[in-house]
Amino acid sequence: MGRIEKPLRKLFDRSRPYFEKGRRMERLKPFFEATETFFLYPAIPVEKKPFIRDSLDLKRYMSIVLAALMPPFFFGIFNTGFHARNASGLSTDFLSVFGEGLIIVMPIVVVSYGVGLFWEGLFAAIRRHPISEGFLVTGLLFPLTLPPTIPLWQVAAGITFGVVIGKEVFGGTGRNLFNPALTARAFIFFAYPVQMSGERVWIAVRETAGNAVDAVTGATPLAVAALADPKARIEAVFADNGYTFQTLFFGNHIGSIGETSSLCILIGALVLIATGIGSYRIMAGGVIGALATGMLFNFFATPDLPAWFSVNPVYHLVTGGFAFGIVYMATDPVTAPGTDKSKWLYGFLIGAVAVLIRVVNPAFPEGVMLAILFMNIFSPLMEYAEMRLRIRRRIPNV
Amino acid sequence: MQMKNVSIKKKIGIHVAGGPSHAVEKGPAITTVAAMPDRIPFIKPRLLVKKGDAVTIGTPLFEDKGNPKLRFLSPGGGTVAEIGYGHRRAITRIVIKTGKTEAHESFDPIDEKGLKNLDRDSLIETLMDRGLWPLIRSLPYRGIASPDEKPSSLWVSLDSADPFHVPSHLYLKDKEALFLFGIRILEKLCHPVYVCETEGAPVRSGEIAPLVTHRAPAIYPAEDPGVLLYHTKKSPDENLAWFTKGQDVLLLAEGLKTGRYPTSRIIAVSASGNGNGGGNTAASRCVDTRLGAPLSSLLPNPETASNLRWIAGGIFQGYTTDPDGYMGFYETALTLIEEAADPELFGFLRPGLFKPTASRAFLYALHKKHFTAKADLRGEERACINCGKCEQVCPVDIMVQFTYKCIYAGEIEEALMHGLLDCVECGLCSYVCPAKIELAETLKTTRQDYYQDRI
Q1: pTM of the predicted model, to two decimals?
Q2: Residue ranges covered by each domain of chain B
Q3: pLDDT tens track for B177-207
Q4: Computed from CA positions of residues A179, A184, A185, A190, in that sequence, does the dihedral angle turn out positive or negative?
Q5: How far is it, in rounded angstroms, from Cα B78 to Cα A360?
Q6: Which of A131, A233, B245, B380 has its CA 20 to 30 A from that of B48?
Q7: B residues 257-316 near A, CB within 8 Å?
Q8: Burial of B288 (C-beta count, 10 Å sphere; 0-12/13-18/19+)
């Protein structure tokens, strides 16, 4: 053991007795264990065969998801800061923009983690099970789907709903039907629509310079598209508002904190696929589903129908939260099907339903959140159907 | 007969360092041997000797309460020195202190001609009398075969499936004729007899080569009889099959031919890593010793390896044992691996160039070199997150995560439909599980409970 490990070990060893059964802080044992194993990765002897085990565990698994979230996270901080300062007429050099972004985004992340961890820990203490690493992902996914102006109390309410109703009432990690981060977002979306949509929520202005515009407004690409004249082409409408394909792809535009940059999300997707942690089947299925459905709508497009019908399907991939949802939310292994062919179908249907909602339902500018939650419901059914098929192929042995 | 290649699509590379060298060393003279009744599945032993009794090689030590014809004979001659009891007074070991000259129980020798004249029933009776019948085991439950069963086939695995084992060309050396005789015995018991070798095995001699019917890829656990059966069977009638191991065929043949209870055994001794206490104490080698040998006799200086984990019967399917234990009836491998060491600072954040894994989550995936095995869980138990890693490695295509949940929910019928009885207890699902759930152990105990009508 090294110079750092030894004193740490001593510290934990000295505190452990207080968390043992019958002692005062017995209930807080999950917190103690979570802290200890965060610093000192445990070395537990194998008791049952096989006597060697793979190095991959859930801590590593979730760390990789977090690592894959870093590109959109940091870009989100930068982008939020940039638009805030830009709208205020302040200088937009990198450092001050990033600092501004940190000041806006970090409170949201801290509240999400803090309140979420409270609920996670409460249930862990009552049920006497360890705190699951999966929460570290939920706690970061959720803030990245929010507009930067979200009031902090709503962040707290949302993550509470997501963790308690989305996960813990079903029995905790591994038993939840819906993705907790998306459940939280859906709750905020329907409960506090004023703070979640419109033209005033996307730019978090803290201070304005003298020469700033009076009212700061901004419409996201999806909002712009929803108002588009049916006869216009959406690509042109986007371009008129400054949303060229490049802008949409690189993500330097307003939107939810982490969802704007398709490029950063693509990097994250590559990390997930290269490490085998995120299912490439779901992601590819989703992209194919969105493109295929988009093309199908192109086929039916007429001037009487909304402009979304005629859009180049590739635009579906780079607008709104589609990329973020299909890469980080749809690939949650607990709520996605566990069988390979179902994963393709699940991804495909998420893509298809997301585009369907976008194109034919003007009431919801964004479809991917609802599409994933909707397909979460069907995921056990797909799993079951594929299981039956595979069992039928087996030579029975009973 | 045309050789069949058994194809198994799933490939998982587990590269453990420290395998035995391919040379057989003669083990030292042995003063105690033991029989280990609780290592034999599904039997209820009834003792036939007591402490202090004089026994010879071949004296019945215990029998099965369920079937008293099933007898287990003494692997040594001398006096019964100790009878060890474990949990709920299960007999764990019968230790025999061997005399200077060991007497043999003698039976009538049976040669090829004698075998021809025996009918199947009297052959079975002979094998039972001579304590050789337990060498033949039965799928799917892997207990000792019952003579009333009608097996569809009998599988002989030449090389064991475990990463560390005695290669077949070592134990078959100079014993080709004996092996052939053993196969003739098996053919009398069951038709057809399939003999399987591993891809890349050295060229067989003229007598053995025509016996080999199947060839399995050189990946664990392709040569397990359960895996072979699963990948070759065509109908449910074939589910019941018998199996035995290459070395056991030699015992069977020797027992009939010489009329004496056979006691020779070659054991693969492997030490992963070099041991903490003093260099390469636990040299990896193949040791020519005898049935029920004390573990300490298999190493040159065992006391320096006391800080290691001693595993009899292979790292995937064996048992943890004390250094003062003995080799069981079926086991042909002793493996020593390092114990879980100290906790590591921020272990889960490290790049992991030397963290062995079957996944791609560490840099180890880039080179996959042989690694030093450690009896380390490498994580903590968590709830199943349905990642499907277990299903990806199962050699008999069980959807382990769902089967596990069926068992968890008490749905045994459903678990059986998933193929619970096809499970070969290879342990790969537990190996890869990132939630560190004891999948293989759960499936195994459920199968055994089901067999014994406990659920």
Answers
A1: 0.91
A2: 4-23+107-258, 24-105, 380-455
A3: 999 999 999 999 998 999 999 888 888 888 8
A4: positive
A5: 90
A6: B245
A7: 309, 311, 315-316
A8: middle
The alpha-carbon gap from B295 to the nearest alpha carbon of chain A, in Å, equals: 18
Mutate to test the interface with B, among A33, A47, A49 (most CBs of B within 10 A): A49
Range 290-349 of A in CB contact (< 8 A) with B:
333-334, 336, 338-340
Q: Which residue from A54, A63, A130 is facing B359, i.e. has the nearest CB? A: A54
B-chain residues near A131 (CB < 8 A) = none
How do B264-271 and B333-339 pair as beta strands?
Answer: parallel
Q: Which residues in B282-368 belong to E strands, given as ranges?
A: 285-290, 309-312, 319-321, 333-339, 344-345
Mapping DSSP to helix (H, G, I), strand (E, B) and coil, where does residue B281 land? coil
- Shortest distance between the Cα of B78 and any Cα of chain A, in A, equals 35
Output b/e per residue, A250-272; b: 16+ Cβ within 10 A.
bbbbbbbbbbbbbbbbbbbbebb
DSSP assignment, residue A287? H
Residue bearing tokens 């930067």? A148
Kindly report, residue by residue over B225-252, the tens digit of the pLDDT. Answer: 999 999 999 999 999 999 999 999 999 9
The topology under which CATH files domain B24-105 is OB fold (Dihydrolipoamide Acetyltransferase, E2P) (2.40.50)
A238: region left, alpha or beta (phi > 0 left; psi from -120 to 50 alpha) = alpha
Strands (E), chain A: 40-41
**Residue matched to tokens 């929803």:** A226
Contact A39/B436, CB-based, under 8 Å? no
- Cβ neighbours of residue B323 closer than 8 Å, sequence gap 6 or more: B295, B296, B302, B305, B306, B310
* H/E element, B79: strand B78-85
Quick count: other Cβ atoms within 10 Å of Cβ A38?
15
